[in-house]
């Protein structure tokens, strides 16, 4: 009898351990089996220009990646509510920089903590290496083998309100996570820059940082802080305004094309109306008449194209 009890206990422990090990895969399978919620699609359509630049097939892939991310990642509000808009924008921020890597997952991301707005952080004089201090919009922290991301909800939403300003805090912070996948945040993520690309990337990065620090660059000054911040800032630039990045920094643009395995410039420019401009028009105070041409550039009347969808979003 004691042997049977012991065997039963071992079996239960092994079963629970198996369930623990396969939890992510089961959540992923369950997410992929579900239809993408119409409400989430409306959020992506009305707020995420990158999503608007995709073909129907690519949109389907993007939606599945969003579903998997949200199935695997806990998003918690700190003194703020978390609604579908916040969750979908966090997921979009995560998917955009790794969309060129079909099997990529943020393996060590345990939780995204969303706070109402920017916060202050003071340097700890007792720490040998002091973190960045001042007003923060987002940050990535690690505890043992897990990582926690802090995001300002207001800044997250602002990042998607203007898709032409080269700034998106969500993309910025997920670029840091991508950078840290090789164990260190140093501006040279091994996943993105394989060994053959690293020497040229490091040379381009050094030249660009020197130009920023000398005041000879239109890249955000924050990119001159260090190599890690440079990578995160130019990642924002690459996905928000790639044509300007190519114009002003052709070498840098070429390196990022190879690294991310994506061409956002060609995606934006293949449509009659640039998705970034379309969203900008929709957010303006201009009202479109039912018989006006739809701002999406389809050539159809507004009432026969996006009117119903936009009314649903406004409801």
Task: Report what the structure shows.
The chain is an alpha/beta fold and 315 residues long. It has one domain: Collagenase (Catalytic Domain). 52% of the residues lie in helices and 10% in strands. A four-stranded mixed sheet has the order 1-2-6-5. Strand 1, helix 6 (84-95) and strand 2 form a beta-alpha-beta unit. Helix 3 crosses helix 6 and helix 11 (242-248) crosses helix 12 (250-260). The radius of gyration is 22 Å and the shape is globular. The protein starts with a helix and ends with a helix.
Short description, anyone?
The chain is of the alpha/beta class and 315 residues long.
Topology diagram in text:
Blueprint: H1 2-21, H2 23-33, H3 38-47, H4 49-52, H5 56-72, E1 74-77, H6 84-95, E2 109-115, E3 119-121, E4 134-136, E5 138-143, E6 146-152, H7 153-161, H8 169-179, H9 198-213, H10 227-240, H11 242-248, H12 250-260, H13 264-269, H14 275-283, H15 307-314
Helix pairs in contact: 2-5, 3-6, 3-15, 5-6, 6-8, 8-10, 11-12
């Amino acid at each position: 009898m004691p042997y049977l009890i012991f065997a039963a206990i071992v079996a239960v422990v092994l079963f629970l351990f198996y369930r623990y090990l396969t939890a992510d895969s089961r959540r992923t399978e369950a997410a992929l089996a579900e239809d993408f919620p119409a409400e989430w699609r409306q959020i992506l359509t009305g707020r995420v220009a990158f999503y608007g630049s995709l073909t129907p097939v690519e949109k389907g892939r993007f939606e599945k990646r969003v579903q998997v991310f949200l199935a695997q990642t806990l998003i918690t509000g700190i003194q703020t509510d978390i609604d579908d808009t916040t969750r979908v924008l966090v997921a979009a921020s995560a998917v955009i920089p790794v969309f060129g890597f079909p099997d990529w997952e943020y393996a060590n991301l345990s939780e995204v903590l969303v706070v109402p707005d920017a916060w202050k952080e003071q340097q700890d004089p007792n720490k040998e290496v002091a973190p960045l201090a001042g007003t923060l919009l987002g940050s990535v922290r690690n505890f043992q083998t897990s990582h926690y991301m802090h995001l300002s909800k207001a800044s997250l939403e602002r990042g998607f309100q203007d898709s032409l300003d080269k700034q998106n805090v969500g993309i910025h912070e997920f670029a840091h996570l991508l950078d840290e996948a090789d164990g260190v945040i140093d501006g040279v993520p091994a996943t993105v820059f394989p060994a053959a690309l690293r020497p040229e990337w490091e040379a381009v990065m050094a030249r660009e940082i020197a130009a920023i620090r000398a005041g000879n660059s239109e890249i955000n000054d924050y990119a001159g802080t260090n190599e890690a911040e440079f990578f995160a800032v130019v990642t924002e630039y690459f996905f928000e305004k790639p044509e300007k990045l190519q114009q002003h920094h052709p070498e840098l643009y070429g390196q990022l094309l190879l690294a991310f395995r994506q061409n956002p410039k060609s995606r934006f420019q293949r449509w009659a109306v640039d998705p970034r401009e379309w969203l900008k028009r929709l957010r303006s105070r201009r009202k479109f008449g039912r018989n006006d041409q739809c701002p999406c550039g389809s050539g159809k009347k507004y009432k026969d194209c996006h009117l119903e969808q936009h009314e649903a979003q406004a409801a």
